[in-house]
User: What shape does this take?
Amino acid sequence: MTTIPITALSRSKGVKLECEICGKPACLKCSSCPTYYCSREHFQTDWNGILNLIADDINVLRSKPKLIGSEQERHKRKEELKAIRKEVLELCVETAHKYLIQGNFELAVPGALYGLKLALELHGNEALELVPSYLLLAEANLGLHRLKVAEEFLSLANWSLLKYPKEKAGHRVMSSLQRNFGRLYAAQRRHQESLRAFATDVYHSAREYGPEDVKTAPSYFHMGRVFQSHHKVDQAQAFYDKVLNIYGTWLATERALKEKESSGGAPASESKALASGGSGTLGDVELDEAVEIAGHIVEYRAKKLGVDSPSAKEAKVIFIGLVDKCRELKAQIDGEMEDMR
Assistant: This one.
């Protein structure tokens, strides 16, 4: 895909064209949809990050509205566009999250930005639904070491949440907010504030899923990383032990479920739950995160205790189990997608 220069004749009078990535005046346009950029580099980031998946939808959403037709037809068109926005918003958030898990922070930014724009169009600038996009943008900018920008997005998320009762925001959102504040404080070397934020993250995650649930494991992991950065080995190991224990228990449960299914004892809905990411299960993005976490613990233990130490070997077994599970789930999802074609 390429860009074309924006000429004076192609500009609508009084319309300011801004870069999709940075907001600066645009001088280039995507050749396949109405998106605009200040540089070829920003176009490439946008295309690789999310635009290649949503270009057709952007064409539909940004096309000039037709004024002809009955009121019923216009209402139907409005509802169709609303449904497209919701679908694209979900895809943008999911894609941005996937890049964050992979550590590809630059490519996470476009999806998060489009997600924010769509959430604003759907819900307005005071809505609670803006918070997930703010948090994605904060996390991406933390990964890019743009601490001031990350802090601004976290402040926007926090301000949005303050307008609503905590129970309406939900423990999942509060967990993500505190986790990102913890990362910000850690990067700023505000270690005590970082610990408090991660402890609050653990609290909200445990309230949402349960203290022993597989989805709570990342919260414990981040606590361990703070202690690791302080060279407090015993405390770091204690949290890493907790993480591995949760993952090990989950893997054992999944193996038992698979054996039960193969013997005809498990209901089909239960065996398919792995792909849905429901309670007690992990979706593909969450499994990627689990693999990253376990890999970090393997590396840490190998350096501290030796590659052949029982602790390092135990961590590696769990890491391999998670990698295998990740491959299995992705093959299952690919198979289901193929069946739908």
Q: What stands out?
A: The first strand starts at residue 3 and ends at 5. The chain has three domains: 1-58, 81-209, 212-341.
